[in-house]
Design goal:
Radius of gyration: 16 Å
Structural class: alpha/beta
CATH architecture: Alpha-Beta Complex
Distance between the termini: 34 Å
Strand content: 25-35%
CATH class: Alpha Beta
Shape: globular
Order of helices and strands: EEEHEHEHEHEHEEEHH
CATH topology: Spore Coat Polysaccharide Biosynthesis Protein SpsA, Chain A
CATH superfamily: Spore Coat Polysaccharide Biosynthesis Protein SpsA, Chain A
Helix content: 25-40%
Length: about 200
């Protein structure tokens, strides 16, 4: 039996300096969120998909009407707050939260992440890639942390037990380090959009 995926698609994408909503930014002719939805549908461990939008992404729900997904509008405060809002309002159990700007993500990688969560025995799992991998790709880095003396960067994918309290307190979590370029590429700048298009074209 699979779990629910919660796609976080309420961000403004202010650094892109483009008029399009961030989830609908085209990568090789398709909105970036479409790649994420397709990967989730290809994942054997995912059995339902919910997309969290906000007032910053008003066109996204209309685009999503062609897919078998549920949409919830969140307050658009910030990523963590909106994730908590969706989890609590929908009374989610264990769910996989994923950013809507990961165009290279695959169903296979997502299954590997859920399988790791099932084995870890903790209420939360954060997925990270080596800082070196992001740097080699030319990606911007907002935040990194140390793991066994190695600098790592969270990728925007977490598995969380929504029945446990979180938001104002940290859940005990496992860190899953995966050195996969398809998880390292997210789109926050025009340069990263161009990089994603080059990698997808190859």
């Amino acid at each position: 039996m699979g779990i629910t995926a919660l796609v976080m698609a309420g961000g403004k994408g202010t650094r892109m300096c483009l008029s399009e909503e961030k989830p609908l930014i085209k990568v090789c002719g398709k909105p970036v969120i479409e790649y994420v939805i397709v990967a989730l549908r290809n994942a054997k461990k995912i059995d339902s998909i919910i997309v969290a939008t906000s007032k910053s992404t008003p066109k996204t729900p209309k685009f999503l009407s062609q897919f078998p997904v549920k949409v919830i509008e969140t307050p658009g405060k910030d990523y963590v707050s909106d994730m908590g809002y969706a989890s609590q309002n929908l009374k989610l159990g264990v769910f996989l939260a994923i950013a809507a700007d990961l165009p290279l993500v695959t169903g296979q990688a997502l299954d590997k992440i859920v399988e790791r969560y099932e084995r870890c025995g903790k209420p939360a799992l954060t997925v990270a890639v080596p800082l070196e991998t992001k740097t080699k790709l030319g990606m911007s880095i907002e935040y990194s942390f140390k793991m066994d003396d190695k600098d790592v960067v969270p990728v925007g994918i977490n598995v969380i037990d929504g029945r446990k309290r979180y938001g104002d307190e940290w859940l005990d979590q496992d860190i899953f380090l995966l050195d996969l370029p398809e998880l390292a590429v997210n789109i926050n700048t025009v340069q990263e959009l161009q990089l994603a298009e080059r990698l997808l074209s190859n």
